[in-house]
Amino acid sequence: MFERIRPTLAALLLAVSVPAQTDDALAALKAAGAKAIAAVEKELDVKLDGVGVRFTTTEELIEIFDKELVPQFAIQFSDPDEADRQRRMFAESMAPAVMAKFDTTAKEILVEQDNIEDLADQLDIPELRTPECLQAILVHEAVHAASEAKFSWSKRLSKCRDADAILAYNAVIEGHAQHVARRICKKRGWTGAFEKFTSSVGKVPEIENAIARQLARMNAVSFSWAYHDGERFVAAIAEEGGEKAVARAYTEPPTSPSVIFHPEWFLDPSKQPKLEFDFATGLAELAKAFGADDWTESRTTLTPPQFDAAFALLPKEDVERIKKQTRSNRVLVLNWTAQPGEKLIAAGVYELDSYTEAAYFVAAEERLLRAKDEAMAKGMTRITSSTYAPLQLEGSLGTHATKKVAFPGGSVDVAVVVLARGRIAVELMVSNHDVERDRLVSLAAKLLETIETSATGADEAKEEAKPEAGK
Fold first, then answer.
1. What is the DSSP letter of 207?
2. If we measure between CA atoms, which residue out of 65, 38, 60 comes closest to residue 49?
3. pLDDT above 70 for 7
4. Any residues with CB less than 8 A from the CB of 377 and at least 6 apart, and which?
5. Backbone angles phi and psi of 22, in degrees to 5
6. H or E stretch at 392
């Protein structure tokens, strides 16, 4: 599916569109679709009999997504009602930004022309309106149809074990479609058009407010990395292992996004470093401490592009250092079940290369928090006050910060604790949930201790010299 979330607040609104379906437009679409399908059939030596091409509406796409994503959201949310709510919300935010999609049930390539027009304006890429760009997009979708016929990826995707496995497999699916579409478009003289629509994936429109721009970027990279980094992954394994390696990526897919950024781990699993720390137990204990039954839980692993977006307010050299020195990470999000979105708890755990880098991470997090104070000093949603206090606990150091965030109609209190010990850094944030300072610090320290002491050779994980943060 060639789909992308619009990185603007408009993406959160339902905008039902009815594309112009004149006889001439439909005939042109079917002709372009037939050309794309024929090109993919020849390139991949597969028959796509019965695959159709037609226009669609945003309303129809919402219903398709809502039905299609039932298994994936059931995997990520244990509470059925919350899974339904999250899935519907996702479908309503996704559909208005989809240019085209292969419907695996109906075996049709669906094109939402009004969305193409809208994105051309939003992203200032007028070439998206051209027949050549449509041709390239249809090739991408036809590759999805071919890989579905060969590997039944939609069924495999619905059986992924967790959110990380879904993300990794989606990168295989989208990356392969990009990899093959690029090759076909080069042979057919459509490379320029292919590059134009590829440039739209993850592009964020000009937004003056720094925080709004950062949120838009984080939203965009959550989906765009599967196309860009997924394509690099598929290209790497194809060059080294040929079509057998690509087929294995579909039938025995990577289960973690980190493998997408290290194709050598997929080609030779013995090269993948063994996990030294047990993140799962510590995060489970933290959720239990907050009363797990009251919260809807989700866990994920941040990808390098998400690090770029999350730390975008910091200098590039800081972000590159953090990405380079972070060996592994895991993020837990608890959303209040009674009133989703009203209260939020988030915890991040990061394994760094050394204590020095863990301490640097803590210092960078504080700089980021302060940068947000400045960036959100004005506007409809703004930080009206904040406090910072250093934390010096036995064997660890860190920062405790509080903020009051005002918005039309009210305000919320946010508290953050960032701690480092050994090679592990943790960040614990609570929003609009009353937790005493000492208890919040204690919970963060307990999380840190549980994870650090889970290491094989835990005593060796600590360096004797423990410099101050930022040194």
1. -
2. 38
3. no
4. 383
5. -70, 160
6. strand 382-393
Q: Give the closest residue to 447 by CA, choosing from 325, 331, 304, 364.
A: 331
pLDDT digits (tens, 9 = 90+) for 285-300: 999 999 978 898 888 8
Q: Check: CB of residue 333 under 8 Å from CB of residue 301.
A: no
**Would you call 269 exposed, middle or buried from its count of C-beta atoms within 10 A (0-12, 13-18, 19+)?**
exposed
What share of the chain has pLDDT > 90, as a percent?
70
State the Cα torsion 127-133-134-138 to the nearest 10°: -150
**Cα–Cα distance measured from residue 102 to residue 95, given in angstroms and rounded to the nearest whole number:** 13
Residues 6+ apart with CB under 8 A from 25: 55, 113
How is residue 466 annotated by DSSP? -
Q: Which residue has the tokens 């027949």?
A: 131
Q: What is the DSSP letter of 313?
A: T
Question: For the CA atoms of the chain, what is the radius of gyration?
Answer: 23
CB atoms within 10 A of CB 366: 18
Of the candidate ranges 10-14, 260-264, 328-332, 438-442, the one whose mean pLDDT is the lowest: 10-14
Domains of the chain, earliest start first = 2-270 (no CATH), 279-461 (3.40.1000.70)
pLDDT at 456: 57
The span from the CA of 92 to the CA of 59, in Å, is: 9
Distance between CA atoms of 34 and 30, rounded to whole angstroms? 6
CB 454 within 8 A of CB 283: no
Which pLDDT score is estimated for 18? 36
Place of tokens 């300072």: 437
Among 92, 89, 87, 96, CA closest to 69: 87
Q: What is the mean pLDDT of residues 26-38?
A: 94
Q: How far apart are CA 329 and CA 153, in angstroms?
A: 27
At 45 the three-state DSSP class reads coil
Supply the pTM of this predicted model: 0.79
Whole-angstrom distance, CA of residue 254 vs CA of residue 375: 38
